[in-house]
Amino acid sequence: MKSILLGAFALFAASSMAGAAPVRAGAATSNITPDMGVVLDGTIMKIGPAKHVHDELHARCLVLDDGTTRIAFAVCDVTMMAPEIVAEAKALLKKSLDLPPENILISATHTHSAPRALNIGFGPANEAYHHFLARRIAEGIQRAAFLLAPAKIGWGGVNKPEFVFNRRWFVKTDSKRANPFGRIGERVQFGPSLADAEKPSGPVDPELFVLSVQHADGRPLCVLANYGLHYIGGVPTGHVSADYFGVFADCIQEKLHADRQDPPFVGIMSNGTSGDVNGVNLKDPNKRKAGYARMHEVADDLASAAVEVIGRIEHRSDVELGAKLTQLPLHVRKPGADQVAWAQSLLGTEEAKKTNPSRPIIYARETMGLSEYPDTLPITLQALRIGDLTIASAPCEVFAVTGLAIKKESMAKATFTIELANGYGGYLPTPEQHEYGGYETWPARSSFLEVEAEPKIRATLVELIREVNGK
Predict the structure, then answer these.
(1) Does position 80 have pLDDT exceeding 60, yes or no?
(2) Residue 89: which of 59, 66, 62 has the closest Cα?
(3) CB-based burial of residue 29 (10 Å sphere; 0-12 exposed, 13-18 middle, 19+ buried)?
C-alpha cells in the first residue's frame, strides 16, 4: 500500500527559535544482550531461559544539546524494566555527566524475546542482569554525549495502517469463554475466535513518526522513529531477539546509505501507544507469517517509509530543547481477602505443581504477587521538547485511544508518545475498557493501576506538554 504523507513536515516557528544556539547531537549503541540462562519475558508468558542469540540486544541512545539544555534518549531492547533499573542508570549519569534525571528518557521496546527486567523473583542471574543493564544504558548515553557535534534536526510523519490492528474485540453476548477468575460475560476479549468476534473495541494509531538528526554536512546521524505496534514475536523458545525494532535499526541504516560511517549512524525504533494493538489481522489469518520473516517484512517497509519522510523534512540547527518530569501517585488494584483465599485454594492443588499450569493457576500466582504491592505507587511521566515537537512518555502499556487523545489535546505543533518509559506501570485501559473486561484489564502484576488511572495520566501528560512549551 502506498503511504500518504500527513501534513507539513518539520515546520518550525521562527519566533520560538529566536536566539537559539546551534544544536549538537551524538548517538551511540550499547550492547545489552543477556548471558545464556537469564530468564526471558516471564510474568504471564514464560518462554524460559535464554538458549540462543538470534540477534544482539542494544540500548540505542541519542543525546541533544542546544547550549543551554541537554536531553538524552535510551531505547532498550527489553520487554520492560523496573523503575529501580532506570533510577540506577540515571544516578550513574548524574555522576558522570551531571545530567538531570528529568532530562533523560529511558524506555523499553517491548520485544518479548528479551528479559522482562522486573524484580519479581527470577533468580540471581536476572538480578545481576538488571545491574548490568543499568550500567550499559548509562555507558551508551555517555558515549553518545562524547560524540556531540554540530547537527541539524527535523521531523515528520506518515500513515502506515497496514501493520497495526486492535487486538481487543467485542464478542457476541452469548460467548461462553470464561476469564481466569471463572467469570463469564466479558464484552471484550483479546484475540477471540472468528466465530465470536464482532468488531475491534478501539482504534489504532497508524502514524509512523520520524525524528531525523543529521550531521552539519548533511550525513545521517540518527533516526528516532515511533510506531504503535506491540511487537511481532513468533520466535522459537529461548531465542534472544530485538524483534522488528532491531531489524528497523539495520534497515534504516542501509536505506540511508549510512553503513560504516565514522562516527556510526544509529537507527532507533521506539514503541508508541500500542497496549491494545498488534500486527495480527484477526479477519485475515491466512496472511500470518513466521516471526523472523514477518519482522523483516514490517521493518523493511517502515524503513522505506521513514526514508521517504526524511527526504521531505526541513532540517534546522536552531532548535531549542526543554524537559519536564513529574511523579503521579496512583492507587493499586490490590486483591481483597476473598480473592486471596481463592488464589491460595488453587495454589494448594496438584495443578499448581505442573510446569505449564492452567491460566487460573497463573492468575492465582499473580493475585498473590499483587497482594504484596503497596497501596499506591508513583508513576513517572515526562515531556521532552525539541523545537515545536514534544515527546510525551509514560511507563505503561498505553492504549492507542489514549495516544490519539494526547495528540489531539496537545498544544504542541507535533506530538507523539513513547510508552514503557522510566519504569513499568502495567496496562493502561481507559475506564470504559475496564468495564468491557479482557486480558489487559485482569488484575495482575501486568495490570495493577486503579481504574481511573488513564484519565489522570493523560491529563498530567497534557499539562506537562503545556509546561515544557512555556504555556
Answers:
(1) yes
(2) 59
(3) buried
**Omega within 30 of 0 (cis) for the link into 429:** no
The predicted structure's pLDDT at residue 461 = 98
Contact (CB, 8 A) for 235 and 241: yes
- Stretch (H or E) spanning 132: helix 124-146
Q: Residues 24, 221: contact at Cβ < 8 Å?
A: no
DSSP 167: -
Give the mean model confidence (pLDDT) for residues 221-245. 95
DSSP assignments along 59-72, one per residue: EEEEEEE-SS-EEE
392: CB partners within 8 A, 6+ apart: 381, 382, 383, 406, 410, 415, 416, 417, 418, 461, 464, 465
Query: Looking at residue 352, what DSSP letter applies?
Result: G
Q: Which helix (H) or strand (E) holds 311?
A: helix 291-312
Q: HEC string of 223-270?
A: EEEEECCCCCCCCCCCEECCHHHHHHHHHHHHHCCCCCCCCCCEEEEE
CA distances from 382 to 8, 324, 395 (A): 26, 6, 10
Q: CA-to-CA distance for 136 and 344, rounded, in angstroms?
A: 40
pLDDT at 471: 81
The dihedral over CA atoms of 88, 90, 91, 92, expressed in degrees to the nearest 10, equals: 90
Q: Which three cell numbers stand for residue 14?
A: 521562527
| Cell output for 99 | 545530567
